[in-house]
């Protein structure tokens, strides 16, 4: 028998740690360990997407999760911090590396351009916003708010609409030269999050720096509960006006291909709007705004007999446990307003969720049991929508419980413990290394 003192035990531990690390490094060609993330959507030629298709190199594990750059919404006052904008402050930190030559670039010209999104999990959307770096930004410094023009050059209001598997915005890109970065932000309607994608671009062929004149005499007519018409006088340009955008505040709500009238739909009843119109040309130059047109849509008159639309895309949002299922769905719409959502399991009432929330975790479930959830929307008049899609979920079996981890116990390879309601197995000898922490590589999570 060997008599190993404390120092010798530490040496054995370090030897095994080093061995494991070497095995991981040299075994990456046959086994890749990827942290699971929630995949939702990305711009198809973004920095992350070009990592996934191999055009960008040394990107880290974003190559497996180009759809997962999710962070708090509210940019520029909120959102990811400076220096972490490209990664959305996630663990994909390689994306925040920044220099004039670090990333592949997409050739682009000022003017009309279509941004294409690949949507893995559709979510009701507040808006799609696009920002661009200033002409004199520093491409060798980390991306920060000082790098960008903080007024989006394109802002498309979706009002809670649900995108499909693909989605596109055709925007008017302003005049720039050389290497620039575009920040695309997909703001989710019913959560506090957004998706952030940066696109590295190189401007070519931009001979026209002159913007059109401002549209004149904008007026509104045909105002109803959810519709209105806005007209304006034509702008002039040294080359030619390509089209016009209609804005409610900073959100673009309509565009025309040169027509001097826009028929607006999808407005909210009894709501005040402050609209302006801007002209743009083929080179991406945008005029100053027209005069502001202010109006209030009409209220709904008489009894409300119209039910909300059915909630859609009911899905699991998070991790299902043996006793709980986190649900999420796309918001319903109503001619007046949605009051609440009711959740059912196979016809049995489960819970009520006040609008505008579209999330709820159903608890106190039975392990290893099948459930069939639906959601219905209810308005203030008591009108009830049709049911959402049915979500069939089977809860997993209850996890095995092992002895509680103790900071004073010596564990060896194969020992199993429970800590913070999760189970772990030791890979090698350990003492006082808390499971579930990034530093404690000795522990692996087990069911």
TrEMBL record:
<dbReference type="InterPro" id="IPR014756">
    <property type="entry name" value="Ig_E-set"/>
</dbReference>
<dbReference type="InterPro" id="IPR013783">
    <property type="entry name" value="Ig-like_fold"/>
</dbReference>
<dbReference type="InterPro" id="IPR036116">
    <property type="entry name" value="FN3_sf"/>
</dbReference>
<dbReference type="Pfam" id="PF03067">
    <property type="entry name" value="LPMO_10"/>
</dbReference>
<dbReference type="GO" id="GO:0000272">
    <property type="term" value="P:polysaccharide catabolic process"/>
</dbReference>
<dbReference type="InterPro" id="IPR003610">
    <property type="entry name" value="CBM5/12"/>
</dbReference>
<dbReference type="InterPro" id="IPR036573">
    <property type="entry name" value="CBM_sf_5/12"/>
</dbReference>
<feature type="domain" description="Fibronectin type-III">
    <location>
        <begin position="214"/>
        <end position="300"/>
    </location>
</feature>
<keyword id="KW-0119">Carbohydrate metabolism</keyword>
<dbReference type="Pfam" id="PF00041">
    <property type="entry name" value="fn3"/>
</dbReference>
<dbReference type="InterPro" id="IPR051024">
    <property type="entry name" value="GlcNAc_Chitin_IntDeg"/>
</dbReference>
<keyword id="KW-0624">Polysaccharide degradation</keyword>
<dbReference type="InterPro" id="IPR003961">
    <property type="entry name" value="FN3_dom"/>
</dbReference>
<dbReference type="InterPro" id="IPR004302">
    <property type="entry name" value="Cellulose/chitin-bd_N"/>
</dbReference>
<protein>
    <submittedName>
        <fullName>Chitin-binding protein</fullName>
    </submittedName>
</protein>
<keyword id="KW-0378">Hydrolase</keyword>
<dbReference type="GO" id="GO:0030246">
    <property type="term" value="F:carbohydrate binding"/>
</dbReference>
<dbReference type="Pfam" id="PF02839">
    <property type="entry name" value="CBM_5_12"/>
</dbReference>
<feature type="domain" description="Fibronectin type-III">
    <location>
        <begin position="310"/>
        <end position="398"/>
    </location>
</feature>
<dbReference type="GO" id="GO:0005576">
    <property type="term" value="C:extracellular region"/>
</dbReference>
<keyword id="KW-0732">Signal</keyword>
<dbReference type="GO" id="GO:0004553">
    <property type="term" value="F:hydrolase activity, hydrolyzing O-glycosyl compounds"/>
</dbReference>
């Amino acid at each position: 028998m060997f008599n190993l003192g404390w120092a010798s035990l530490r040496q054995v531990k370090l030897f095994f740690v080093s061995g494991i690390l070497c095995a991981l490094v040299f075994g990456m060609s046959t086994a890749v360990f990827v942290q699971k993330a929630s995949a939702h959507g990305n711009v198809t030629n973004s920095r992350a997407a070009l990592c996934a298709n191999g055009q960008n190199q040394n990107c880290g594990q974003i190559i497996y999760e180009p759809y997962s750059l999710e962070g708090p919404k509210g940019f520029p006052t909120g959102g990811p911090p400076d220096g972490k904008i490209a990664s959305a402050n996630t663990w994909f930190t390689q994306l925040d590396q920044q220099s004039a030559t670090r990333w592949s670039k997409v050739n682009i010209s000022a003017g009309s351009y279509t941004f294409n999104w690949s949507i893995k999990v559709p979510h009701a959307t507040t808006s799609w916003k696009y920002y661009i770096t200033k002409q004199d930004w520093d491409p060798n410094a980390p991306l920060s708010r000082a790098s960008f023009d903080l007024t989006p050059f394109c802002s498309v209001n979706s009002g809670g609409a649900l995108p499909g598997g693909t989605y596109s915005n055709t925007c008017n890109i302003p005049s720039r030269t050389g290497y620039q970065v575009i920040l695309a932000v997909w703001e989710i309607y019913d959560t506090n999050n957004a998706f952030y994608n940066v696109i590295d671009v190189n401007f070519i062929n931009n001979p026209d720096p002159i913007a059109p004149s401002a549209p004149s005499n904008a007026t509104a007519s045909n105002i109803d509960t959810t519709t209105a018409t806005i007209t304006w006088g034509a702008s002039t340009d040294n080359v030619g006006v390509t089209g016009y955008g209609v804005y409610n505040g900073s959100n673009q709500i309509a565009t025309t291909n040169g027509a001097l009238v826009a028929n607006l739909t999808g407005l909210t009843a009894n709501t005040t709007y402050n609209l302006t119109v801007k002209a743009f040309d083929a080179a991406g130059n945008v005029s100053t705004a027209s005069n502001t047109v202010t109006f209030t849509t009409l209220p709904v008159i008489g009894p409300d007999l119209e039910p909300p639309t059915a909630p859609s895309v009911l899905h699991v949002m998070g991790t299902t446990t043996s006793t709980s299922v986190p649900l999420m769905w796309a918001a319903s719409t109503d001619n007046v307003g949605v009051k609440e959502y009711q959740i059912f399991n196979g016809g049995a009432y489960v819970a009520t969720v006040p609008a505008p929330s579209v999330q709820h975790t159903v608890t106190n479930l039975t392990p290893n049991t099948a459930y069939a959830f639906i959601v219905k929307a209810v308005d203030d008049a008591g009108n009830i929508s049709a049911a959402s899609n049915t979500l069939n979920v089977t809860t997993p079996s209850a996890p095995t419980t092992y002895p509680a981890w103790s900071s004073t116990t010596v564990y060896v390879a194969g020992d199993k413990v429970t800590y913070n309601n999760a189970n772990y197995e030791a890979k090698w000898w350990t003492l006082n290394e808390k499971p579930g922490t990034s530093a404690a590589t000795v522990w692996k999570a087990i069911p």
